[in-house]
Amino acid sequence: MLELDSVSRSFGERRVLHDVSFTVARGRMTGFVGGNGAGKTTTMRVMMGVLAPDSGRVTLDGSPISTQARTRFGYMPEERGLYPKMKVAEQITYLGRLHGLSTERAKANTDALLERLGLGERSGDTVESLSLGNQQRAQIAAALVHEPEVLILDEPFSGLDPLAVEVVLGVLKDHAAKGAPVLFSSHQLDIVERLCDDLVVIADGTIRASGSREGLREQHSGNRHELQVAGDLGWLRDEPGVEVLEFDGGYAVFDCDSQETTQRVLRSAIAAGPVLAFTPKHPSLSQIFKEVIQ
After folding, report:
1. Domain boundary among 196, 212, 228
2. Do 124 and 241 reside in the same domain of the chain?
3. Beta partners for residue 210, in sequence order
4. Which tens digit of pLDDT belongs to each residue from 205-227?
5. What is the pTM of this model?
6. Do residue 179 and residue 81 come from a single domain?
């Protein structure tokens, strides 16, 4: 488990991180979301040892992370760092060797990754000759070539078309399935919601929410339900303690002021006729994000 404990960081008089604490569990995908300037990139740089925290600590499985241990991290920075005039396969292989792999293993890993990421036919091309989306795929291969035990990716889906997103999702899921803690940031909340097991929301350098995806959705759902009946739900608007948010004849989404009100509505619906559906209405990640950063 990768853990941040009360990490703070300032640049001059400007405090960028304020007592940031969260965990990235092994074998799980953790989405890290926040607006521009929220502190995501600074947090990731602290985790990688690129920046030192002013206070707090970063640990892996309860132990401080040494420089040697960080060579087993895979990191994709916000600023892409591949050499533009170097051939793709040569560069990925070179990076694998820098991380201690033998030439044969680095080449084998490179070939397998480029093929999986859809770059097999472009392996002999220079990075600068690739489209931005393909350069992004090459950058992901660079982060994975040395079989890292921890994976930290800053905006890995930026510039990818929907098909490429699916390819990269598959690669990252496979890596998490091997037991690695995987942390990735993204502005694309629909992708984060679909991919992540756990979620961390940061705003103004402070963690506003963290936990499992389903746990957070349940926590922020309040007492909202959707109801569908065979008849008409016009009577629902007159129920005490009920606020109707969406309405379409026999379908409604509504908030209740208590569990007692919810049960009363359900009993009334059953008494009025067949109930086709009655389920809690959990918020989307986008709705949770807007709620916690306000």
Report:
1. 212
2. no
3. 200
4. 999 999 998 888 888 877 889 99
5. 0.82
6. yes
